[in-house]
Amino acid sequence: MTDPQHASATDNGRYYIDPLDGRQMISVTNTLDQHAISALAPAAAKVTAEYIVEHLSEANRAAAAPDDLDEFVKVAKRAYRDAWDKRAELGSRIHHMAEGINLGAPIVQDDEAEPFVDSYLAFLHDFGIRVGPGGDIVAAECTVLHRSNVIPYGGTSDIWANLRFDADTSPLIPKFKPRAVPPDPLPTPSGLWLIDIKTSLSKPASAVYEANVMQLAALRHAEVALICPPECRWGEAEYHDASHEFPLPEFVGAAVLNLRTNGYGFVPLPADEHAFDAFRGLLHVARYVHGLDLRGYKPIQSPTNHLKDVA
Hints:
Layout: E1 7-10, E2 13-17, E3 24-27, H1 28-54, H2 56-62, H3 66-103, H4 114-126, E4 137-146, E5 153-163, E6 173-174, E7 185-186, E8 191-199, H5 210-220, E9 224-226, E10 245-247, E11 253-260, E12 263-268, H6 273-290, H7 303-310
Parallel strand pairs: 3-5, 8-11
Antiparallel strand pairs: 1-2, 2-3, 4-5, 4-9, 5-8, 6-7, 9-10, 11-12
Helix pairs in contact: 1-3, 1-5, 1-6, 2-3, 5-6
């Protein structure tokens, strides 16, 4: 999976390089990993268990030979990472194909991704979204930055699209409120929407998560968007100038677009100030964790043992 414009992989996950001054800015998704930590172990355990069940005969044979068992365990322990990397790579291909459709560019044949692309085309048709020059897609795969935040960050927004809704028939979406309080309806206004594409082979098209809300809020509240030529895309400050960036526009709404092999789900979410405040709290956690080096901390000798040594 390739990095977005001005982004690079580090030992602490993805960071963006500000082309204005070269400083590193943590990515939105990297920050949200701090929220997802509690869910990682159960998800990894599920994939590992599924791998062992699928390869049960190999596990039984390996159990008879210690060396074979050690190798099987190594492979089984790596299975969840291999599965996640494969899903991420498929998601990246789907995003690139959707971007090609948005830009009116040719796309490469991909049998595995094709069902998801068909669902994306159905979404465009059902919502009356025109693609190509002069169409409703204002931006696709656009890098955004928030420089003046206490902890600066960067991200990549999938789609900015002008959507048209009938005010009398707009779906009603619940606002954010405590779980015990019934939600108020939130109308879907016509105008510019921030849309993030999510793909999955197993989750329903209705699936949404807390991280989705905070991700959209972080992207929505960014300050500038970058449109840089190829020579500037990796953060070379000498190639960057003010013409490569512009202020983020106002969005009337934000939503995730869940693409599945058998359809799609367009789910507006309340990417508001409450969600942005929560995201900024995670930024502090991420910066602290990424800067924490525990290698120098070792067990020390107890005072009692120290006195015995002296005696």
